[in-house]
Amino acid sequence: MFSLHPQLAKDSRVVGDFPLCRLLLIRDQQYPWFVLVPRREGIRELYELSFEDQQQYFAESLNVSRELMRVFRGEKLNVAALGNMVPQLHIHHIIRYSNDAAWPGPVWGAVPMRDYDKASLDALIERVSQCDFVDFQASPTLSA
User: E strands along the chain, which residues?
Assistant: First the structure.
């Protein structure tokens, strides 16, 4: 049975689900920062997914990437799977701008995270709702 790693649960909010992956929002208002987590237990690396799940993951990642860049009009999209501190397979999709807090370096550890206040979260949810994700079921609890 799938369960989200406790650190991912602490650092994020659930946006919704695709057929394979759960889409999370990282609780740092300095960047539009999303994470895809395949809902498969015990998977640490992409190659551990079945061939069919690998294909589904890439389709979902490309869908998320395209729509986030379209809606957020980023200058660059960072897609990365590090997993050094959280072993559960999770792939970051971070919209970057040349004026963001960490530009041009990586976001990890650049500056302390700043959680969303209600107004910022509501604005972000409105922007995410403009994404035309394929086969997506939004979480009713994102704004809660």
Answer: 12-17, 21-26, 33-38, 76-80, 91-96, 137-138
